[in-house]
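Tutorial, part two.
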Amino acid sequence: MDNATLKRTPLYRQHVQLNGKMVEFGGWEMPVQYTGIIEEHRAVRTVAGLFDVSHMGQIHVSGTDARDFLQHLAANDIRKLDVGRCHYSFLLNERGGTIDDMMVYRTGPDAYTLVVNASNAEKDWAHILSTGTGRTGVRLENRIGDRALLAFQGPLAGEILSMLTSDDVAALRFHDVRPFNVAGLPVMLAASGYTGENGFEIFVASNEVESLWRALLEAGKGAGAVPAGLGARDTLRLEASLALYGHELDENTSPLEANLGFAVAKTGSYIGSEAIREQLAGGVSKRLVMLEMIDKGIPRQGYGIQRSDGSTAGVITSGSVSPWTGENIAMGFVDPKLARRGQELLVFVRNRRLRARVVRRPYYRRPGS
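Running the prediction step on this input gives:
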């Protein structure tokens, strides 16, 4: 895609000023790194990192029938989501395959915000509109360009954030979402993230996000907080065994196959629910596992996984060197019979069959979790 046709977030100038290496991602021009992926990754694990995730799609669902609509649209049980809370969920097709994964934030009695993947935002919006056709009491708004989104992640993120607000950051529980005033700006603050660390996602008006970005970096500078790009975001989520759409999830893969059944309602009627119940009753044909290489070699998406006799066992979906442990790690789908911890398998890396073993998920657990 030509750079002239790429979309840019309101923080594009900040990324350029910070020497961000800009790349195409999901139709957007985004920073993959600033000073280096490993340095940014380790800053998030030890202090805090600030990510621009304003490219993510934001869809607002409101009205007296909003809850019933979402109960039909999405796989997780929206009836269990209280005001001021958020949860992980999915848009499924009738076969139980994943159209997209998303976070759902309930910001009022009849008000919800869906945050979807940037690469799927247009597809998701079309799906949601078509599903909502003819429904009264539901208002759908595509908020892209209206609200920016930051992710401030790491063990010191709360302490740094507290320097910029008189509101009680420490009172937020995991998956709480509340209106806050940060650096003199009205924001919606959620205790959520995609790195395996404690942290926050911050919704703010697009015309105010530059001011908030600068304030957070300035407040965290002395402690070692840094801006972080998509490269570190990817290695962090891989260490934390978190799925990425287009890798661990797609329209031919169900959340159950990806070990994400905790975010799928086992009862009720929603799009894809019949297929999900069939999988619950009869089992799945593949299972997502975490692998650590025994032999030296880096597994990459698409590499084959084999049994010891050389027969096909599955495929790698994501792989890299872990910046935290230095080990070569991956996620991949295998025959469910091979999904037990300690199982040795072979990964076909550059025409070599290298040994790997199934390890616990998540691979990285933050201290105290």
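The chain has three domains: 3-53+146-239, 57-142, 285-369. In part three we will examine how such features are distributed along the chain.
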